[in-house]
Design a protein that fits this description.
By secondary structure, the chain is α/β, with parallel strands linked by helices. It is built from twelve helices and eleven strands.
Length: 349
């Protein structure tokens, strides 16, 4: 296990006095519209943070589609047509099989645990290698994190695994592999495309994000059964991708400032999600006719066993996926000594 200090150099730079310098504009596309709480505002708030402390760069945030579509951001940053992107690695699963492990892991670590792996173990180094060895000319920084999401909005109750068979559902990341194995036809739609697809019946169900985000997209108007817990995304990391040539042209001080702005964004992002989601859940039930449902222990057990089977297959098919997966599993085994002993059990009322 390698212990890393993500912020040491960055913290030192704050005390320095920088000479005056000309300011460059970095155009940054986002995978999420600024109208979406936390997801979209995370990009806006990052831009505000870095612009308030940097004298060398100014980030200009653009919503998906204004510069490039959300699912084309990685290629656009790599080839230099866009300077930067605020997005999530799970969108690149089709290009890089291990990418989703740096975004959200089914039945995997929650926010504190995955940040420990990312910042103080091997996660950050492996994350950059993902892009380097995949042939992408980008520098990656973890720049946002959210707590668990809801695991789906359904038009009808799901009382058994058999009820999932034959559904068409928008689903993200590695969780989509699990749903497909259980007979669900999945598609990865960008946020703005989901409600129209639900409305016209192109999909029968969807997952997207946390209750406060999903409420903004109006899923409750069509699908009244909202399922928990978010087994497929116990925590989700969001990334800042910067074209590597642009990154290397920056001064060390400015690089450190960008790192600091991202660290502040991680805390801000996570705290906001923890603070405002309960109100959306209450409103869903009291004013929107939503029924909050918990997956049965039997269904959760099937989902987990299916994921473990798929993870083993993916590790056998891709050497880098296996390296990342094995590293994360080793970290989690060590973390378990701490995690299983330090926290109070959470009672169910």
């Amino acid at each position: 296990m390698k212990i890393r200090t993500f912020a040491a150099a960055a913290a030192a730079s704050i005390a320095m006095t920088a000479p005056a310098m000309s300011q460059e504009t970095f155009e940054m596309t986002s995978a999420f519209g600024r109208n979406l709480p936390i997801l979209g505002t995370g990009a806006v708030k990052f831009a505000e943070k870095i612009n308030s402390i940097s004298e060398e760069v100014e980030f200009e945030q653009f919503d998906p589609g204004e510069l490039v579509p959300a699912l084309e951001a990685l290629d656009a940053v790599s080839n230099g047509s866009v300077d930067a992107a605020y997005t999530t690695a799970g969108y690149w699963q089709g290009k890089l099989p291990a990418a989703a492990l740096f975004s959200a892991v089914p039945f995997g670590p929650e926010a504190g645990e995955i940040l420990g792996w990312m910042m103080y173990d091997d996660g950050r180094e492996l994350y950059q290698r993902l892009y380097d060895e995949g042939g992408y000319n980008v520098h990656v920084i973890p720049c946002g994190i959210t707590a668990p999401e809801t695991s789906g909005w359904f038009k009808n109750e799901i009382n058994s695994v058999a009820d999932l068979e034959g559904l068409n559902m928008r689903f993200f990341g590695l969780g989509a592999e699990v749903m497909q194995r259980l007979g669900v036809s999945t598609s990865l739609l960008a946020g703005g495309d989901i409600f129209p697809a639900l409305e016209r019946g192109a999909i029968d169900a969807t997952e997207f994000s946390m209750p406060v985000v999903d409420a903004r997209l109006g899923f409750y108007n069509i699908a009244k059964f909202n399922y928990f817990p978010g087994w497929h995304q116990p925590a989700t990391i969001y990334e800042l991708l910067i074209n590597k040539d642009r990154w290397e042209d920056l001064s060390e001080r400015t690089q450190n400032q960008i790192e600091i702005a991202c660290m502040a964004n991680l805390a801000d992002n996570y705290a906001e999600g923890e603070a405002i989601n309960y109100a959306a859940m209450v409103d869903n039930v009291e004013n929107q006719g939503v029924t909050i449902k918990q997956w049965s222990p039997e269904i959760l057990a099937t989902l987990e066993s299916t994921w473990n089977e798929i993870a083993g297959e993916l590790a056998a098919e891709d050497a880098f996926f296996k390296e990342v997966w094995d590293d994360l599993q080793e970290y989690r085994a060590n973390y378990k000594v701490w995690g299983d002993n330090i926290y109070l059990p959470r009672p169910r009322n």
